[in-house]
Write a structure and sequence with these properties.
Number of domains: 2
Structural class: mainly alpha
Strand content: under 5%
Radius of gyration: 36 Å
Number of helices: 12
Helix content: over 70%
Shape: elongated
Length: about 375
């Protein structure tokens, strides 16, 4: 056998061995990757591959090919996580801060408006000018807001209670009363319905803000029929409703102070505070309009000073604006109790309402 023939046979044997090694490495590679994925962190994949693959050219090529992707994967999850965290922070925290708008400024009046028109303007301000936040789902940045939703709910509750009282008084026309009754029904709609019904998660329901827009239109139509009839009976119905509802707010605050003032963490007090704040603001605007419609009756009963104290008490209760709402102990020297201060102004309003009612009925009784 010649020397060249021996060389060719040796080279063929080496080639066959190399092919066998490559084939064995390729067969072993998927199993090895699965084992490493289950038992080792991504960073150790390349080290594990070096230990288990035979020293062949395919090994070096595979390692060279997988080195960059594995390194990218091991580092990129941190980048993705940090980017996602920054996005969620900006979307919810900054977006919620931009969305929040709690205004207790007196509503401008270019021309005198009736009580129903003022109520319509309050709805328009909270539903159209501002975003209605109590019913927003988690996809909106205002979902994380806590104070503004309670403030808006308080405003709607005050309008709803006033509409309930307006149903009981005498009107200029029957059509005016019908519009008030329709608005009263619409205002009783739940404030936190967005798309799905609260009774069934699979049934579509009209949103809260759409119902309140309908109520606004009914109130505007009622105001087009003229102001309220200025009688002592009508005035007493409105004052009685306002007094009873403010008393309920005072009782809620008192109960919360008694139950939660000694707690280290109280997540209910700020909700209650801002709901009452919105209620007091809406009642302030409504009472100001009612005073204009029943001005002659108030002056004739010599109750103008009491009416002024009533308006100022509601205004101060509405314009309280602490940075953090505290529900500290009543005798605490360090921690204030904002619910107790709010109760003081609400209580002053109730006292003056009762004084006005007494003055009106004394004047009315003397005339009869």
């Amino acid at each position: 056998m010649t020397k060249s023939r021996l060389k060719s046979i040796c080279s063929r044997i080496k080639a066959e061995n190399a092919v066998k090694n490559v084939a064995a490495g390729i067969k072993k590679l998927p199993k090895l990757c699965v084992e490493i994925y289950k038992n080792y962190p991504i960073r150790d994949v390349s080290k594990r591959l070096r230990k288990n693959l035979k020293p062949t050219k395919i090994k070096r090529r595979c390692l060279k090919f997988l080195k960059k992707p594995l390194r990218f994967i091991s580092d990129s999850w941190k980048v993705v996580l940090m980017s996602l965290s920054c996005f969620l922070f900006c979307y919810y925290v900054i977006g919620g801060f931009i969305s929040e708008k709690i205004s207790t400024e007196n509503m401008p009046e270019n021309t005198p408006k009736t009580t129903s028109q003022i109520m319509a303007d309050l709805i328009d301000r909270e539903v159209r000018d501002n975003i209605w936040t109590p019913n927003l789902p988690i996809i909106f940045p205002a979902y994380i807001l806590d104070n503004m939703p309670n403030f808006q709910i308080g405003v709607i509750y005050a309008i709803r209670d006033t509409a309930s009282a307006l149903k009981q008084i005498y009107y200029q026309t029957p059509e005016q009363k019908q519009h008030i009754q329709k608005a009263s029904v619409l205002l009783k709609y739940s404030p936190n319905v967005w798309l799905l019904s609260r009774k069934s998660a699979f049934s579509i329901a009209p949103s809260s803000n759409s119902q309140y827009r309908k109520a606004r239109r009914e109130l505007i139509r009622a105001g087009e029929h003229g102001p309220l009839i200025s009688t002592a009976a009508n005035f007493d119905v409105l004052l009685s409703q306002m007094s009873s509802q403010l008393t309920k707010l005072i009782e809620e605050n008192e109960n919360n102070i008694a139950e939660k003032s000694s707690d280290w963490f109280d997540f209910k007090s700020d909700d209650l505070f801002y709901k009452n704040k919105g209620y007091a603001y809406a009642q302030w605007q409504i009472a100001d309009s009612v005073g204009n419609e029943f001005k002659e009756l108030i002056v004739a009963a010599e109750a103008y000073n009491h009416w002024t104290y009533l308006i100022n008490s509601l205004r101060k209760a509405a314009q309280m604006n602490p940075i953090i709402v505290r529900n500290g102990k009543i005798d605490s020297s360090l921690a204030p109790n904002h619910l107790a201060v709010q109760n003081y102004f609400l209580g002053r309003a109730v006292v003056n309402i009762e004084k006005i009612r007494n003055s009106i009925w004394k004047k009315y009784a003397n005339q009869n």
